[in-house]
Write a structure and sequence with these properties.
The structure is a single chain. Helix content is 0%, strand content 57%. It is built from no helices and eleven strands. Strands 2, 4, 5, 6, 9, 10 and 11 form a seven-stranded mixed β-sheet that branches. Strands 1-3-8-7 form a four-stranded antiparallel β-sheet, with no helix packed on it. A hairpin with a 6-residue loop joins β4 and β5. It is elongated. The termini are far apart. The mean pLDDT is 97.
């Protein structure tokens, strides 16, 4: 089985920074695209940032220039550096990845989420 575990969430003041991490563990033969999603209360889950296995990235317009996604393929980890945080960035952030697991097939896996709260 594969597990994705997020860490690094918390409470931060507007304008501050946080770094989220996602670690994948289990029987893993490869990881394709990795994503960060977020969901605020009463809102739909939205895609925040994407990184492919070659390091290509894409971002939601709302976070461009403030957030940076990165990954370490050797360690099966992914990070999201969040700078200049705004109250509207408050949400539960989820790690998502396309993982080739024990079945030798790619499956979509999700982490349990980590809360980010931006407030003074």
């Amino acid at each position: 089985q594969v597990q994705l575990v997020e860490s690094g969430g918390g409470l931060v003041q507007p304008g501050g920074s946080l770094r989220l991490s996602c670690a994948a563990s289990g029987t893993i033969f490869g990881i394709g695209v990795m994503n960060w999603y977020r969901q605020a209360p009463g809102k739909q889950r939205e895609l925040v940032a994407t990184i492919d296995s070659g390091g290509g990235t894409d971002y939601a317009n709302s976070v461009k220039g403030r957030f940076t996604i990165s990954r370490d393929n050797a360690k099966n980890t992914m990070n999201l550096q969040m700078n200049s945080l705004k109250p509207e960035d408050s949400a539960v952030y989820y790690c998502n990845a396309d993982v080739t697991d024990w079945s030798r097939r790619a499956h979509d896996y999700w982490g349990q989420g980590t809360q980010v709260t931006v407030s003074s």
